[in-house]
Amino acid sequence: QMGYPLGDTLLLSEQLVDIPLITNEAIPSAYRDLESFKSRPEASLLELQIKGNDLEILSLQAGYLPSVGLQVQRGALAGAGQFNQVLDPGGNWFAYGSVGLGINWSLFDSFNKRYKIQQKRIEKIKNERLLFQFLQSSKLQQEQALMGVQNAIASLKQQVRNQDLSRDILETTRIKYREGVGSNLEVIQAEAGYREAQAAYFNSLYEYYIAKVDYLKASGKLTGNNE
Q1: Quick check: 170 and 190 in contact, CB under 8 A?
Q2: Residue 67, pLDDT score
Q3: Stated pTM of the model
């Protein structure tokens, strides 16, 4: 008991500010895309490495093919008997030209290219296995993260209901106190219950946003534009 006159109005010095509640939160349709994890940067990097392995293998295999070279020469020779006649445009000049075709084919390189091709194929197989394992792990992470979002939303909705109920109890208790049929202790207890419900709501809201970020990260959708 506070010894406060029952006929007087009791006002709180600080008012509880109502925060906009998420009462109809639903799983966005984009969240249900359980294949979006394939767009994660890690998967793209592994796919790029696999393509690079293919190009390196093709380049090495092309080394078994013969190379063909074409050479063309054209010029003129002076037939002057004296040096000062070399610069004479009307002197004896003889034009010449030649065309050459060369083929280079390495028949044996001590299995050097064969060894390199095998190494690149092994690297490709390793990268393919890494990509497969990463996609399997990412898919599981995404499914678990989506379940976390669903659970967080269910918990958040329950905390909204608890907060609404605590607010109704507080208002009813205040009315009873003003009418003299309730005690100030009941009001204090109702206010404490409402504050606890608010704290539980904010904690649940925080867990929801954490779960949302975890899902966006697992699905490869985490960007600076996410709300």
Answers
A1: yes
A2: 76
A3: 0.56
Distance (Å) of CA 45 to CA 50, 53, 70, 85, 144: 9, 12, 41, 70, 24
- Give the pLDDT mean for 8-29: 47
Q: What separation in angstroms does the CA of 66 have from each of 104, 109, 112, 152, 184?
A: 6, 13, 16, 66, 100
**Lowest mean pLDDT across 87-91, 173-177, 198-202:** 87-91
- CATH of the structural domain 29-63+108-218, one choice from 1.10.3210.10, 1.20.1600.10, 3.40.50.300, 1.10.10.10: 1.20.1600.10
pLDDT for residue 41 is more than 70: yes
**Strand pairing partners for 71?**
100
| Every domain of the chain and the residues it spans | 29-63+108-218
Q: How far is C-alpha 217 from the geometric centre of its chain's CA atoms?
A: 6
Q: Which two tokens stand for residue 70?
A: 């074409």
